[in-house]
Amino acid sequence: MSETTSIAPLEVRRRLMTEPGLGAGNFLDHALAANPNRDVPFVYSHHNDHLGRVVLRGHSLTDLAALRDRYAAWYRANGVRPGEPVGVVVGEGLEPLIHFLALTSLGAIPAMVNDAMRPDVMAGYLDHVGAVGLVADDTTRLQAAYRSNPRNRPRFVALSSEVRAHDAGSGAPDGEPPYRHAPDDVVALIHSSGTTGVPKSTILGHLQFWDGKQPRMVRFPAEPYDRLMSLMPHTHAGGLSYFLTAVLLGLPTVVMSDWRRVTVEPVMEAFQPTMLASFPRTFVELATGDLPVKGAARVHSWFNTGDSAHHGHIRRLVRLGERPAGLIKPWLLPGGAASDEPLPGSQFVDGLGSSEMGMALFGQVTTPETPRNDRCVGKAQEAVIHAAVLDENGEEVPDGTVGLLAVITPSRTPGYWNDPKLTSGFELNGYWLTGDVARRDGEGDFYHLDRTVDVIDTVDGPVYSLPIEEVLIADCADLVRDCSVVGVPGRPGEGQRPIAVVLPQAEAE
């Protein structure tokens, strides 16, 4: 690691909060122009050497721009023009982010795809998107899918290795000036589902995807000692959101290519992060079994988004690490004084968000001292104009009543690509429905009970899976390592029955 800091000075970060024209389509250019430490490596990729040791490779802002411009030159040479969607099917890590930067620099629209999606589903999805081209790590199965339906084949289907090997010289591709994004330009298409169902193509807008993230410029921990490990999928809005934040801050960040503990823990030990950002899946692995004491020695914050996490896992993770003096409150919470003394243990920032919400819009912080409060995701954060629990007619229900979680916020997606009917299905009485079932208490705190599609409809009324999972994981920890509560069909007239699929502790009978 370089002794010279890569972090943008505070006055630079304050200017970025109100910089006209800054958005999700050009944040790298703004970081290059504003950060005087643009040549200091800060974004790290990782691999193992021939002896299995972790090797970290750093990239500066200027390095990222050079990679972006080389990839962009390849795309332009292959006929990609502004406003055209292009499928990106590359493995997790830094690579999909470079493709995102390259395509947005041309004004094109990267359609980021999880490479675990079935080839036939992927081909159908990209046809719906209208992708003019496709870049993938492995094109064999995709080529076969297109041979069975050649009319849907894009203009090009290319190996990502061709793009990496492209030699474009230096400067902007073909001497073209940088594309200037309008506030409502589409900068990416992010699918939800895809490995578990029919993928929906969520639009990310240039200004929309930046809205709400401005407070992170001064409220995200960015001290000289801070280091972020990003375990988000980087073909997903969550990974893109944390990458955008890290680039604008100049925050040292290792971009992980694998979320499994067997890969994550050795990189933690080598990188010594102070923060980890992930979906719950990695936190479940880290919180079960032997705790990663060595890798988490300096961790002060765990950032979770997507579905909210379980207390049984959170309470084990916050035992690890240390909270330094001066640690600021997370950006999800109202501003306040920083801690004035170091404390043992760490904080778990549990954010409820989605690609459609644009970011985590609700947040709850748990520390070793926090009383248990199952399923609480806190209050809506500053980007939310109004959050409510609604009935099926779009009317607010009284506090304590279960209903549909809904928000009014500029950070919400403009909608689903090529699917206005689906978009309208998530709009109700001026709100965007998040797809969650929740209740609000008299203090204005929200409680996340289930996804709307996961509610179990029994003959005696709805059963919500997440509170049951909380009890099994936290209160039966000596027997249950992890679990999932689902509904199965009962006998005729009985509706569904809830069952728990349980992963027992190794020593449990």
TrEMBL record:
Pfam families (UniProt xref): AMP-binding (PF00501)
Looking up InterPro entries in the UniProt record yields: AMP-binding_CS, AMP-dep_synth/lig_dom, ANL_N_sf, ATP-dep_AMP-bd_enzyme
Q: Where is the AMP-dependent synthetase/ligase domain?
A: 60-417
Q: What is this protein called?
A: Class I adenylate-forming enzyme family protein
Q: Which organism is it from?
A: Streptosporangium algeriense
Q: What is the lineage of its organism?
A: Bacteria, Bacillati, Actinomycetota, Actinomycetes, Streptosporangiales
